[in-house]
Amino acid sequence: xxxLSAILVAILVVVSVLAQLGSAEPTCRSTGKYLxxxxxxxxxxxxxxxxxxxxxxxxxxxxxxxxxxxxxQASVSECFPCPVSGTIxxxxxxxxxxxxxxxxxxANERECxxxxxxxxxxxxxxLSANVVC
Length: 133
Description:
Number of helices: 2
Shape: elongated
Strand content: 35-45%
Structural class: alpha+beta
Number of domains: 2
């Protein structure tokens, strides 16, 4: 019985920790109103008002800029999940004519030469006939 109790306690602790890690809602100050970024999604934000948070979404192709307190035209370099080490070409989120060069965790938007598209399998620009877009 003690073993079962220990297992249940361990499960409850794990579930509690995971629930806290999974929460993207900010802790808002008890007074004032302001916008704050969503750490899990650059295309959304939270509106904090008198201690409560309300979820907001930017329009298509836009992302939230906390310093300007506004949704602005999206830029891949500001919000692309690159690996923190190494160099790799990744598919662009909206265009097959472009790709994202990730270098040491920093995203750099690049464009394929005319007539070529980014081939995800080869991780390089290729003839359009060889690319599924």
